[in-house]
């Protein structure tokens, strides 16, 4: 997961990612399960909860509003 975020040009370090995941779990947005690993210690796998999906949908809608507003501003600027 960290490698994927870094490839997407999002600077992420373990010291910031895992506290964020814990906070979201405590808020009921994520759940996790432990699985044995063939190599090394057991691994924790996170899943989004129904509450997390609802919040994600709300945030996506708000983000779309921001994107549309920026597009309007840019278009208005280009017309002048």
UniProtKB/TrEMBL annotation:
Transmembrane regions listed in the UniProt entry: none
Boundaries of every Transcription regulator PadR N-terminal domain copy: 4-58
InterPro entries linked to this entry: Metal_resp_DNA-bind_regulator (IPR052509), Tscrpt_reg_PadR_N (IPR005149), WH-like_DNA-bd_sf (IPR036388), WH_DNA-bd_sf (IPR036390)
Protein name: Transcription regulator PadR N-terminal domain-containing protein
